[in-house]
Amino acid sequence: MGNRLTQIATRTGDDGTTGLGDNTRVPKSSLRVQAMGDVDELNSHIGVLLCEELPGDVRPLLVEVQHQLFNLGGELSIPGYELLKPEALAVLDDALATHNAKLPRLQEFILPAGNRAASQSHVCRTVARRAERAVVALGQVEAVNETPRRYLNRLSDLMFVLARVLNRMDGGDDVYWKSERMAREG
């Protein structure tokens, strides 16, 4: 992989371009750079979530996700390279099955709300969806491995499930949307 950064303010991006991991330069407006930025933002939001009180099995899972997102970003920065392995997807699938099995069935749509940890998990979910859309857009014009797209799709699902788990940490519950249908049936 490319050289490690020894300084941050290189001024090479002052012209509106940025360097990829294969030493090519591309416009900062490119779809590849957009996807990389969205993945980086998602990783940062997970870092904020890690500042919260979390169940014991959630913290190591999120730390692992951060490492995999770094791999995903690295893969995006080196066209044609694979860093995110399909095994990373299996970790998300296992976590989804484990955490979802403990939750009651949804009766209605839920709001992205509740306690602060759950709300931050919802922020992560929405940023994961945006990152997924960016990777899909990139894949329509350049070759992109399928694992990054699948990983982001599954991660957004996991963040939704974790939001529900986190809302129940201290005896709370989901915050349901007050729809007209629920009002009529309730």
UniProtKB/TrEMBL annotation:
<keyword id="KW-0547">Nucleotide-binding</keyword>
<comment type="subunit">
    <text>Homotrimer.</text>
</comment>
<keyword id="KW-0067">ATP-binding</keyword>
<dbReference type="InterPro" id="IPR016030">
    <property type="entry name" value="CblAdoTrfase-like"/>
</dbReference>
<feature type="region of interest" description="Disordered">
    <location>
        <begin position="1"/>
        <end position="24"/>
    </location>
</feature>
<keyword id="KW-0169">Cobalamin biosynthesis</keyword>
<comment type="similarity">
    <text>Belongs to the Cob(I)alamin adenosyltransferase family.</text>
</comment>
<dbReference type="GO" id="GO:0009236">
    <property type="term" value="P:cobalamin biosynthetic process"/>
</dbReference>
<dbReference type="GO" id="GO:0005524">
    <property type="term" value="F:ATP binding"/>
</dbReference>
<dbReference type="Pfam" id="PF01923">
    <property type="entry name" value="Cob_adeno_trans"/>
</dbReference>
<keyword id="KW-0808">Transferase</keyword>
<protein>
    <recommendedName>
        <fullName>Cobalamin adenosyltransferase</fullName>
        <ecNumber>2.5.1.-</ecNumber>
    </recommendedName>
</protein>
<dbReference type="GO" id="GO:0008817">
    <property type="term" value="F:corrinoid adenosyltransferase activity"/>
</dbReference>
<feature type="domain" description="Cobalamin adenosyltransferase-like">
    <location>
        <begin position="8"/>
        <end position="165"/>
    </location>
</feature>
<dbReference type="InterPro" id="IPR029499">
    <property type="entry name" value="PduO-typ"/>
</dbReference>
<dbReference type="InterPro" id="IPR036451">
    <property type="entry name" value="CblAdoTrfase-like_sf"/>
</dbReference>
